[in-house]
Amino acid sequence: MLNPGDAAPDVRYATIAGGEAAIADHKGRKLVLYFYPKDDTTGCTREAQDFTALADDFAKAGADIVGISKDSIKSHAKFADKYGLKVTLGSDESGAVCEAFGVWVEKSMYGRTYMGIERSTFLIDPGGKIARVWRKVKVANHAAEVLEAAKAL
After folding, report:
1. How far is residue 54 CA from its own chain's centroid?
2. DSSP helix/strand/coil, 23
3. DSSP H or E run through 32
């Protein structure tokens, strides 16, 4: 499990813009890396909209925002277009990024267990170290809390 002070894993993810990006591409800037279970679901949509609403404030604080799920690039593009999202969405269909950050976990719902993404956010400092970790995120007010942490970093 990753903790504050640990180096952020330098993993790659596919982007809507085409091609791939890496965590290291954000070196020299703060990075808000949030993991969410599924495009176009209630909680995930709200979270993406909340980060989008604060995108200009994050930019002023020198922070990039990347949302990662295992959905395809095609799904991400449709999701971003539908809601006018201003955050970068990264696709991790292989699960390598989720594994590296320890967010691919056993979950349970209605007595059934399954593997899925634990809604989590990592604030990474300009040097590539993890500054803050939020696990089992509750969406309400989360983006604002992350913004305050990014400003303080």
Report:
1. 14
2. helix
3. strand 30-35
Cα angle 99-117-43, degrees, rounded to a multiple of 5: 150
Tokens of 38: 């599924």
Choose, from 8, 32, 44, 149, the residue flagged as catalytic. 44
* pLDDT one-digit tens code per residue, 12-64: 999 988 889 999 999 999 999 999 999 999 999 999 999 999 999 999 999 99
Residue 44 annotated in active site: yes
- How many other CB atoms sit within 10 Å of the CB of residue 31? 24
CA distance 2 to 18: 29
Please report, as a single letter, which amino acid is at residue 110. Answer: Y
DSSP string, 57-100: HHHHTTEEEEEEESS-HHHHHHHHHHHT--SEEEE-TT-HHHHH
Biggest distance spanned by C-alpha atoms of the chain: 45
Q: 3-state DSSP call for residue 124? A: strand
Residues in the chain: 153
What does the block give as tokens for 115? Answer: 């593997």
